[in-house]
UniProtKB/TrEMBL annotation:
This is UDP-3-O-acylglucosamine N-acyltransferase. Belongs to the transferase hexapeptide repeat family. LpxD subfamily. GO terms for biological process: lipid A biosynthetic process. The lineage of its organism: Bacteria, Pseudomonadati, Bacteroidota, Flavobacteriia, Flavobacteriales. Keywords: Acyltransferase, Lipid A biosynthesis, Lipid biosynthesis, Lipid metabolism, Repeat, Transferase. One of its GO terms (molecular function) is N-acyltransferase activity. SUPFAM superfamilies: Trimeric LpxA-like enzymes. Its EC number is 2.3.1.191. It comes from Muriicola jejuensis. It catalyses: a UDP-3-O-[(3R)-3-hydroxyacyl]-alpha-D-glucosamine + a (3R)-hydroxyacyl-[ACP] = a UDP-2-N,3-O-bis[(3R)-3-hydroxyacyl]-alpha-D-glucosamine + holo-[ACP] + H(+).
C-alpha cells in the first residue's frame, strides 16, 4: 500500500512542508529511514537524525524548525508521537480489513455472525455461537458452544475460547490465548488421591480488553471469572478461577494470580508477580516486578519484594540487605575481640 504526503496529512490533520505528492509504502525508525519510508520525530535526542535520514516523509511537531538543510518532506502536527500511533492504527486497520469465510472451516448451523465478518481457514465455531459486526477471526481458532463475541473484535490464530465465554466489544485476543479452561480445583480423599471439582462457571471479558499471546484465563468454579473493561494483559499470564480484575488494570508478562482474588481499578502490576488466592487488592495499586503478594492490599499502595513490603520500606531495608555480609563480619570481629 502506498500513501502520499497529502493523504497522510489529511488523516492526521497535519500540514505538509515539502513535496505533497511524494509517496511511502513502509515505516521506519528515523535513524534507519530509507527512500519510500515514513518516520517520525518526537524525542529531542533524535533530532540530529532528521538531517541525515533518507526517509521520504517525517512526522514532526508543529513547533519544529530545522536548523540545517533537510531532504525529507515534513508533516507538522500537534503531537508527533500520538499522530504516528494514530497512523499505525489506521495502517493496521487497512492491512487487516479482511472479510469472508475461508475454507475449510466448521461453522455450526446454529452459529450467527454480523456484517464485515472474517473467518480464517481451519477454524471451528460451535453451537449457538453469537458474533457481532466487524469481527476478524484468524485461522485455527476454536470457539466452543454458546460463546458470545461482541463488535470490532480481533482473535488471532490459535486462540481457544471454551464454551459459555463472553467477549465484549473492541477486544483483541492474541495467538495461543486460552479462555475458559477448567479452574484448578481438586479435593483430596483419605487415600491421598484427588477428585476433580467440576468447573461450571464461565469467563466474562468486558469491552476494550487486550489479552497477550499465551495467556490463560480459567473459568469459574461457580459464577464468573471477570476482566473488567479496559484491562490490558501482557503475554504468558495465568488468571485462575473466579479472579476479578478491575477496570483499566495493566499486568505484565509471566504474572500468576491464584483463585478468587479480586484486583481493583487502574492497578499496575509488573512482570513475574505472584499473587495468592482469596485476597483483595485495592484501586491504583502498583506492584513492582517479581514481587510476591500474600495479603490484602489497600488502595494506592506501592509494593516490592517477596513477600512484598511497602516500596519505601523495601528500599530502606535493601540498604541493609546488600551490606549484610559486611555487618556479619563486623559482628564476628567484635565477638572475637571480646573473647566470645
Amino acid at each position: 500500500m502506498k500513501f502520499t504526503a497529502s493523504q497522510i496529512a489529511g488523516i492526521l490533520e497535519g500540514e505538509v512542508h515539502g513535496n505533497p505528492e511524494i509517496s511511502v509504502h513502509k515505516l521506519a525508525k528515523i535513524e534507519e529511514g530509507v527512500e519510500g519510508s515514513l518516520t517520525f520525530l518526537a524525542n529531542p535526542k533524535y533530532t540530529h537524525y532528521i538531517y541525515s535520514t533518507e526517509a521520504s516523509i517525517t512526522i514532526v511537531n508543529k513547533d519544529f524548525k530545522p536548523e540545517q538543510e533537510i531532504t525529507t518532506t515534513l508533516i507538522k502536527v500537534e503531537d508527533a508521537y500520538k499522530s504516528f500511533s494514530k497512523l499505525l492504527e489506521f495502517y493496521n486497520n487497512v492491512k487487516n480489513n479482511k472479510v469472508g469465510i475461508e475454507k475449510p472451516v466448521f461453522l455450526s448451523e446454529s452459529a450467527s455472525y454480523g456484517e464485515d465478518f472474517y473467518l480464517g481457514a481451519f477454524s471451528y465455531l460451535g453451537n449457538n455461537v453469537r458474533i457481532g459486526n466487524n469481527v476478524k477471526i484468524y485461522p485455527n481458532v476454536y470457539l466452543g458452544d454458546n460463546v458470545t463475541i461482541g463488535n470490532n473484535v480481533v482473535i488471532y490464530s490459535g486462540a481457544k475460547i471454551y464454551s459459555e465465554s463472553v467477549i465484549g466489544n473492541g477486544c483483541m485476543i492474541h495467538s495461543a490465548v486460552i479462555i475458559g479452561a477448567d479452574g484448578f480445583g481438586f479435593t483430596p480423599n483419605r487415600e491421598g488421591e484427588y477428585s476433580k471439582v467440576p468447573q461450571t462457571g464461565n469467563v466474562i471479558v468486558e469491552d476494550n480488553v487486550e489479552i497477550g499471546a499465551g495467556t490463560t484465563i480459567d473459568r469459574a468454579t461457580l459464577g464468573s471469572t471477570i476482566l473488567r473493561k479496559g484491562v490490558k494483559l501482557d503475554n504468558q499470564i495465568q488468571i485462575a478461577h473466579n479472579v476479578e480484575i478491575g477496570e483499566h488494570t495493566v499486568i505484565a508478562a509471566q504474572t500468576g494470580i491464584a483463585g478468587s482474588t479480586k484486583i481493583g481499578k487502574n492497578c499496575l502490576i509488573g512482570g513475574q508477580v505472584g499473587i495468592v488466592g482469596h485476597i483483595t487488592i485495592g484501586d491504583r495499586v502498583k506492584i513492582q516486578a517479581q514481587s510476591g503478594i500474600i495479603r490484602n492490599v489497600k488502595d494506592d499502595e506501592v509494593l516490592q519484594g517477596s513477600p512484598a513490603l511497602n516500596y519505601a520500606d523495601f528500599n530502606k531495608s535493601y540498604v541493609h540487605f546488600k551490606n549484610l555480609t559486611r555487618l556479619v563480619g563486623r559482628i564476628a570481629d567484635l565477638e572475637k575481640n571480646n573473647g566470645d
